[in-house]
Amino acid sequence: xxxxxxxxxxxxxxxxxxxxxxxxxxxxxxxxxxxxxxxxxxxxxxxxxxxxxxxxxxxxxxxxxxxxxxxxxxxxxxxxxxxxxxxxxxxxxxxxxxxxxxxxxxxxxxxxxxxxxxxxxxxxxxxxxxxxxxxxxxxxxxxxxxxxxxxxxxxxxxxxxxxxxxxxxxxxxxxxxxxxxxxxxxxxxxx
Length: 191
What we know:
- This protein has helices at residues 15-23, 27-33, 111-120, 128-136; strands spanning 7-9, 53-57, 63-68, 73-75, 96-98, 124-125.
- The strands form two sheets. Strands 2-3-1-6 form a four-stranded antiparallel beta sheet, with helices on both faces.
- A hairpin with a 5-residue loop joins strand 2 (53-57) and strand 3.
- By secondary structure, the protein is an alpha+beta fold.
- 18% of the residues lie in helices and 12% in strands.
- The chain has four helices and six strands; from the N terminus they run E-H-H-E-E-E-E-H-E-H.
- The longest helix has 10 residues, at 111-120.
């Protein structure tokens, strides 16, 4: 089975906020440096999660776990054995899973490779229910049918419904479809 995936982190920590505040470079410092920076969409930070991860919350709005904001792309070249069999993980995967905006997500990754990519990144591969909760906007049972609600709107996500022909010629960059956002802040996590 091949799939697009996201990683999760079972821990969350308020100290990420403090670390961000201490390491951020001010806009004036960047401007004074003469470096030209291409504008990227701005996404709010989740105080409880590492960069490019958002928290899935329970009915009391307490964070339960962090999930990648975007579908995963791969940093590094060695994906390792697609079928690692009984010896998994066999250390053949050395690349990392990263979640960032504006890149084509990695596709055609086996479960073994996805597991190892997440593990190499200090995360773990989402369980089915964690991924579903990260997509449908509700912790536990229930939630929306689509990331943004219960009614399908053609073109809002890089996906198709039923027998409708695919409207895109190629995989879409992460974060490109801003309407395909879940209430937690995940993008394009639809299938």
